[in-house]
Amino acid sequence: MRLPPCLCVLLLGLACGPAQARTVYRCVQGNTVSMATAPEPGSRCTAKEIDDSAVQAPNLWGNMGVFSGTLYEREQDGRLVYSTRNLPGSRVYLKFTVATPPGEPAHAGLGRVGAAQLAPHAKQFKAAAKATGVEDAWLRAIAHAESGFDAAAVSPKGAQGVMQLMPDTASDYGVQDPLSAAQSIDGGARHMRALLRRYKGDHVLAAAAYNAGIGAVSRYNGVPPYAETLAYVEKVMALYARYREAMGIRSEVPAR
């Protein structure tokens, strides 16, 4: 399918039609960001002017890995508009994948969603939860998603250990041996405590920042629209519910 020029700008940050200035809206709603050809009802939208005559149009999505999603079409104020958010009255226009330069720390994680595992490193999780005040079930959900509890795990992006700490993060928290389960869990728990404090207890944002970094969450004012991060947050929240149930915690899973 050949995209109209405005949609090339919307999805790729590229000009692909007759030269002219075009306006694209970056819209924030809840913890998510979308791009649209008109301001979205219920979102905080900022207009971005794109000049087709520029040597290189800006990448409106930022520095991402591979971002897959859906572009929706709907009628608004008597004309067709397009958005990456599924608003009432929208219909699917096309599915897309945008590949952007590497370098973003976002990752899918090494652990698969499965049954809760209470045995691995039980003493270390209990001790870290007691020392930091971060819920044991939440720490286990992160570790499960990150490494599947494998103390020797090393990701393609360089994260290490049970909690898959990046070298800079491990250094920040005094982790001398990132492949030590006890040190990794302790460092990961203290990092997570800092994130939960930063985001006022919002587990979704804390998970997103653990995955993609604080800078990405700040840049998008919410969960970054990276395919890896969106999948990761969904995985962690599902695991969190399973660990709370397995540990006999009956209250509702808090998003915040």
TrEMBL record:
<feature type="domain" description="Transglycosylase SLT">
    <location>
        <begin position="125"/>
        <end position="221"/>
    </location>
</feature>
<dbReference type="Pfam" id="PF01464">
    <property type="entry name" value="SLT"/>
</dbReference>
<comment type="similarity">
    <text>Belongs to the transglycosylase Slt family.</text>
</comment>
<dbReference type="GO" id="GO:0016020">
    <property type="term" value="C:membrane"/>
</dbReference>
<dbReference type="InterPro" id="IPR008258">
    <property type="entry name" value="Transglycosylase_SLT_dom_1"/>
</dbReference>
<dbReference type="GO" id="GO:0008933">
    <property type="term" value="F:peptidoglycan lytic transglycosylase activity"/>
</dbReference>
<feature type="signal peptide">
    <location>
        <begin position="1"/>
        <end position="21"/>
    </location>
</feature>
<dbReference type="InterPro" id="IPR000189">
    <property type="entry name" value="Transglyc_AS"/>
</dbReference>
<keyword id="KW-0732">Signal</keyword>
<dbReference type="InterPro" id="IPR023346">
    <property type="entry name" value="Lysozyme-like_dom_sf"/>
</dbReference>
<dbReference type="GO" id="GO:0000270">
    <property type="term" value="P:peptidoglycan metabolic process"/>
</dbReference>
<protein>
    <submittedName>
        <fullName>Lytic transglycosylase domain-containing protein</fullName>
    </submittedName>
</protein>
